[in-house]
Write the structure tokens for this entry.
Amino acid sequence: MVFSSSVRLWLVPSAVILLTMGVWGGLRYGDLPDRIPQHIGVDGVDAWTDRSIGSAFVLVFVYAGVTALIAGSAELTLRVTPRDELSEADPRPFATGASASLVNRPRDRASAHRIARVLLLFNALIGVSLLLGCGILWRSTSDPHVPGWVFGAMMAPFVVGTVLTVAAAVRDRRR
């Protein structure tokens, strides 16, 4: 990846969260019971699985994959030619007619940087949600009870990240 330094710094929180998840999971793995939560629903743990590296670190692996996808999306956002840099003769070289509205380019370089940063922020917020899930997954007891507030706490970062991402896209469109 070739992020500019101003965007690269926005990837640091995600890297710290991923490292924290990996170290915390590594330290907790030996103390985990033989059966660990596989699915956490609104009413608590509703499915169990045998402890293994894959089942214990599933949230770490998922977050690593999500981080790679979102970081790649942010990088591609920075690499696409903004609308204000396209030639005047053919502002939408690959779209004609009804498909012209499907072209979704950042308005300018500043907008591309703003969108890339908000994508990386969204990724960090996803990491916070998954970190809370790790707290449930890596408990040393096989208690199916999960406090009701945990579901809301896990969903809140997703909602905030979604709102910020949509707001950045809408701001780009309105300019």
